[in-house]
Every structure is written in structure tokens, then in C-alpha cells.
């Protein structure tokens, strides 16, 4: 049995089904415990919760547990009608993101299948909590719905492989912080498919960037089950906006002598790679102006720190934090011209972002980590000893547990002095990368 507060009842049902617990017995705590007084909490436990716990523990499992409704087969036509009728049906069924979709007809899906050498029924991964198989066929169908072009298919497969990796923890994509997955595209495929990596990067408008981001949101919705309608699994309290895919300006990296982000992720320069990570918040635009790299680094540290400091106790709890800094090409050039590498920028950010121990524990309590104590985490080996160098509650501890986990991508307007930081959600959605596998006939298939 499980104790669940009011706001999580529907999500509990969805997660339980994904875990194979089709008849979860729930003891319901009415309301939101984190804002109840101590007196109200005790009263609800005594009068409401305790009797339910006893009843749940002695109740018999339903004989209907485990029964599931059959789903259509891949090539089964479920509807024939006009564009408007198809969209109304898909919207009513909860299969869309609220925007019109391209109907995934068999003919359209088969055009996508030409751009992969994998069989249509090959399973790329399982998407919990609904635990649907992500096959080549339904990846193509989702790409059609999102408005992708057929030649994006190798990217679609790589993106699904990344989020289906257990390390990504797709099952947490409906958690209350409302984080959004962000795709970064690296390699020559970005230019070949007309991705934008320059001015207005991250804005809707370029088909490749926009539809790839939309594709992943539809995968989370229809494969993993993260919808926010009643009875669905998305519990994002105040969610992020729709994210388009990010592409790095690798030409700018080559000009200044830096390796691209894909090399930082362990691949070879020139490889086509997608990386997906969570984004729980976005910094304000970071404007810096100077020929002195230290001045740029100082402002970056201040704004990145302000964007990440409140959420850092969660990172300390799980010993993981992966902020991604999108560095404007003009800013990157100043660093490179003065001999700064990406690692030196990471060192500066690591050494110049701090939070007091008492604030870290106070913020953790508000977030819901009510038992978080730095000393306990140090004793368990989850944090370095420096986090408990003394018992002074005002002592300063590092915001970032790991300097190497700070990502840096060069993109944006080369004619402006702006950068931006995308803060991650600790172990939920850490960066996961996959190399893009092109079909053998790629050169012949790619439209000129």
C-alpha cells in the first residue's frame, strides 16, 4: 500500500500501473502536507490517514487486477476522415499537445522508414511509466504527427534511444518541478538538415529545431503517458515552456580552436550526436562586455549561480547537477583568444559559486527534502568532506558538486554579447548522448 496526498492520487495510479501494481491500495492524506500546520497534520493522520492505512493493509487484492484493454496493432487504421476530423479525434483522445498534427497515415510513415536500416518492429526502448515499446514504426508515426521531415528519422531514433536509457529516468518526467527535456544536436547533420544555431536559436521558427523538440514531447505524452488531463501522469506544478532543439555552432568552435560539445560528451569530432537532458529553469539573458575573459567569467558565475543556487540542495542530495551554458560565439571568442578552454571556464564557475550551509538545508526542507542534512550526506560518502568542514551553519559550501558536469555549448547570435544557462533537475534527466546512425543510402536519400 502507499500513502499519497490529494495532489498525487492520479499520478500514483499511473505509476502503479507502470510498475505492474494494477490494484494499488492507497491511504489518502487530504490536502498538501507541506503547508499544513503541525496541529492539522496530526489531526489528519489520526482521523483520516490511520484508519485508511489499516484498511488498506488488510484488504484483499481485486480479482480484476492485471486486466488491460487491448490496443490497436501498428498498421491498423483507427480512423478515416478529414484533417479536421482526425485532429478533433486525436485531441479528444489526448494524443496531441493541443496543436494540430499531421495525420500519421501508413504512406507517410513508410516515407520515414526509408531513412533507417532498422526493421519497423525493432524496439528501441521501453518508456515508463506506461511502459510502451518505442519501435521504429511508432517513432516514425510520432515524427509524422510532429511535422518532422522524413530525413529527420535518424535523429528521432537517437533521441528515443537516449531518453529510453534507464540513466535518463524518463519515469520522472512528470514530476512536480515541471522540467522539460532539451535536445542538443551536434555534428555535420545539423547543417545538412538546416538546423538553426545562430540568431534566435531556441525560438520556434526553424522546422528542424521546432519539430524535433515537439517530437520528443509527443513521445513523452503517448509512449510514456505524461499527459496532464485528469487521470494522467504529468504532475508538473508550473511547467516549462515548449522547448525546441538546440544545435551547436560547430563552425564557430572550429574558428576559435575549441572542440564541439559532442567531444566533451566522449565522441569524436565530426560524429553526429544527440544529447538530451532535463531543464528545470532558464536563467535571464546573460550580457557580458569586455576584452578581459575574467570579467566575462565573473558575470557568468554571478548569474549562473543565481539561477542554480536555490535548487543546489537537490543536486547535493543526489550528488548530481548538470547546468548547460549556451555561450554566445562572440563571448566564446574572447575566452579562446586569451587562452581559456572550456575546462578553465568550468573551474571558474565551480570555484566562484557558494551557498551557506543553513540556506542549503532550509531550501531543501521547502522543496520537500525534510530530512536533508549536509553532515549526514558527508558521513554517507555522498558529498566531499569539505561540505562539513565545520559545524558553523553560516559556512559556505559549493553550489556545484562536480565541476566536470557543467556543459558548455557555443550557439546564438554572433553579433551580440549574450549567453544563457539551462539548469538541470539532478538525477532526473541527466545528459544522455547517442550517436546518430545514418542509413547506408543516406547520401542518395537526402534531398538536395
Number of domains: 3
What is the terminal separation in angstroms? 59 Å
Major pleated sheet:
5 strands, mixed
How many DSSP-defined strands?
A: 15
From the spread of the alpha carbons, the general shape counts as flat
Mean of residue pLDDT values: 90
- Residues in helices, as a percent range: 25-40%
The total count of helices amounts to 17
Strand content is: 5-15%
Give the uncertain stretches in residue-range form.
Answer: none
| Cα radius of gyration in angstroms | 24 Å
Based on the model shown, name its key terms.
single chain; 448 residues; alpha+beta; 3 domains; 5-stranded mixed β-sheet; 4-stranded mixed β-sheet; 17 helices; 15 strands; flat
Question: In words, what does this structure look like?
Answer:
The chain has 448 residues and is an alpha+beta fold. The chain has 3 domains: 2-58, no CATH class; 82-278 and 430-448, no CATH class; 281-423, no CATH class. 37% of the residues lie in helices and 14% in strands. It is built from 17 helices and 15 strands. The protein has helices at residues 9-18, 38-58, 83-93, 106-113, 136-146, 153-164, 189-192, 207-222, 250-256, 261-264, 293-308, 312-318, 329-337, 342-351, 357-367, 374-379, 442-445; strands at 2-5, 26-29, 123-127, 132-135, 180-186, 246-247, 273-279, 281-282, 286-287, 324-327, 354-356, 396-398, 407-410, 418-423, 432-435. Strands 8, 9, 10, 13 and 14 form a 5-stranded mixed beta sheet that branches. Strands 6-5-7-15 form a 4-stranded mixed beta sheet, with helices on one face. Helix 6 crosses helix 8. It is flat and about 70 Å long.
Amino acid at each position: 500500500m502507499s500513502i499519497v496526498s490529494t495532489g498525487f492520487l492520479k499520478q500514483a495510479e499511473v505509476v502503479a500501473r507502470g510498475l505492474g501494481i494494477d490494484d494499488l491500495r492507497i491511504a489518502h492524506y487530504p490536502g498538501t502536507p507541506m503547508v499544513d500546520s503541525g496541529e492539522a497534520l496530526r489531526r489528519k493522520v489520526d482521523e483520516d490517514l490511520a484508519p485508511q492505512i489499516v484498511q488498506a493493509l488488510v484488504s484483499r487484492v481485486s480479482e480484476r487486477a492485471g486486466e488491460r484493454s487491448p490496443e490497436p496493432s501498428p498498421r491498423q487504421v483507427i480512423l478515416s476522415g478529414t484533417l479536421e476530423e482526425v485532429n478533433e479525434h486525436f485531441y479528444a483522445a489526448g494524443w496531441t499537445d493541443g496543436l494540430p498534427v499531421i495525420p500519421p497515415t501508413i504512406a507517410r510513415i513508410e516515407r520515414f522508414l526509408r531513412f533507417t536500416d532498422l526493421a519497423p518492429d525493432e524496439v528501441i526502448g521501453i518508456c515508463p511509466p506506461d511502459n510502451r515499446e518505442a519501435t521504429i514504426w511508432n517513432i516514425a508515426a510520432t515524427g509524422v504527427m510532429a511535422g518532422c521531415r522524413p530525413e529527420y528519422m535518424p535523429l528521432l531514433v537517437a533521441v528515443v534511444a537516449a531518453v529510453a536509457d534507464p540513466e535518463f529516468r524518463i519515469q520522472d518526467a512528470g514530476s512536480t518541478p515541471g522540467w522539460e527535456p532539451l535536445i542538443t544536436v551536434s555534428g555535420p547533420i545539423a547543417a545538412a538538415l538546416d538546423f538553426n544555431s545562430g540568431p534566435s536559436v531556441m525560438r520556434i521558427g526553424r522546422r528542424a529545431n521546432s519539430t524535433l523538440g515537439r517530437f520528443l514531447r509527443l513521445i513523452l505524452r503517448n509512449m510514456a503517458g505524461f499527459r496532464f488531463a485528469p487521470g494522467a501522469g504529468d504532475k508538473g506544478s508550473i511547467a516549462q515552456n515548449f522547448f525546441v532543439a538546440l544545435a551547436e555552432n560547430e563552425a564557430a568552435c572550429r574558428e576559435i580552436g575549441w572542440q564541439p560539445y559532442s567531444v566533451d560528451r566522449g565522441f569524436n569530432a565530426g560524429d553526429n550526436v544527440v544529447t538530451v537532458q532535463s531543464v528545470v529553469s532558464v536563467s535571464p539573458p546573460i550580457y557580458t562586455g569586455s576584452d578581459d575573459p575574467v570579467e566575462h567569467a565573473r558575470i557568468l558565475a554571478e548569474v549562473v549561480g543565481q539561477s542554480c543556487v536555490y535548487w543546489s540542495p537537490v543536486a547535493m542530495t543526489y550528488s548530481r547537477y548538470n547546468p548547460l551554458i549556451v555561450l554566445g560565439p562572440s563571448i566564446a571568442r574572447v575566452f579562446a583568444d586569451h587562452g581559456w578552454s572550456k575546462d578553465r571556464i568550468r573551474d571558474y564557475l565551480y570555484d566562484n559559486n557558494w551557498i551557506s550551509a543553513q540556506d542549503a538545508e532550509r531550501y531543501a526542507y521547502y522543496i520537500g527534502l525534510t530530512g536533508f542534512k549536509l553532515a549526514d550526506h558527508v558521513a554517507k560518502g555522498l558529498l566531499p568532506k569539505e561540505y562539513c568542514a565545520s559545524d558553523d551553519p553560516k559556512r559556505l559550501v559549493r553550489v556545484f558538486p562536480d565541476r566536470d558536469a557543467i556543459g558548455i555549448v557555443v550557439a546564438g547570435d554572433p553579433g551580440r554579447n549574450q549567453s544563457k544557462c539551462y539548469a538541470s533537475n539532478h538525477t532526473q534527466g541527466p545528459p544522455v548522448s547517442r550517436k546518430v546512425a545514418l542509413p547506408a543510402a543516406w547520401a542518395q536519400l537526402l534531398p538536395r
